[in-house]
User: What shape does this take?
Amino acid sequence: MKMMIFALVTLLLAAGSASARLPYEYDVTGIAKTDTLNIRQNVHHGSKPGDAKIVGTIPWNAKGVLGTGKFIRIKKAKWLEIRYRNLRGWVNGAYLKPLPRKGAIKFPTALHCTGTEPFWSLKFRDKSAEHKIVGGAKARYSVTRSRKAFNRRDTWVLSLKKGGKAGTTLALMVNTDRCSDDMSNLIYPIHLYLLWPEKRPLTGCCTVVR
Assistant: This one.
C-alpha cells in the first residue's frame, strides 16, 4: 500500500498545476457600472452559451463569488460553475478575478466526487463520507484523519473507516485543475484516487460543494 501511494503521489504531482486556485473565490471584474454579469443555467460543448437560460445576475462590483472549481472551455471562453448567494449556474470566467491565496489552503469540508467504469460517487461532508457504485448499496465512512503533503499546498490524503470494519481506505487528492471524466468536456479541480485495503483502486474527479 505504501509503495502504491508513493507511485500515485509521484504521478499526480508531476501533472500538477501551479495555477490551481482553491478555495475558488472571485470578485467580479470588467463589468460596466450600468451592467450586470449573467448567470447561465447550463453551458456545454457544442452549444452557444448566449442561448442558455439566464437564471440570475451578479452586480458589477460583487465580491465573494464562490466557485466549485469545475469549468468548460467553449471556443476561447472559459466558463466556471459558481454560486452567488442562492443562485447557482455558469459564468464567463473572463469577468471573474480569483482572489489570491493567503496562507495555508484548507481542505474543503464538502466535496462531490465521481468516477466512471464503473459509475460511482463519493460525497464528503465534514467528517463523514458516503460511497455508492451504481447498482449497489451505499456505504458510509467516517473521515478519521486528513493529512496534507509536507511540501505541497495542493495535496491531501484522507483516511476513511467503515464502522467496526478492519482496514482503512485512503483517499488521495491533488488539486490540479485538470481532472477529466473522459466522457464530457468538463474539467474538474481535484484528482481522486481511492485505495481500498482489499480492492482495486478507483480513480475519479471532485468538485467543491457550494
In short: Confidence is low (pLDDT under 50) at residues 3-9, 11-19. The first strand starts at residue 25 and ends at 28.
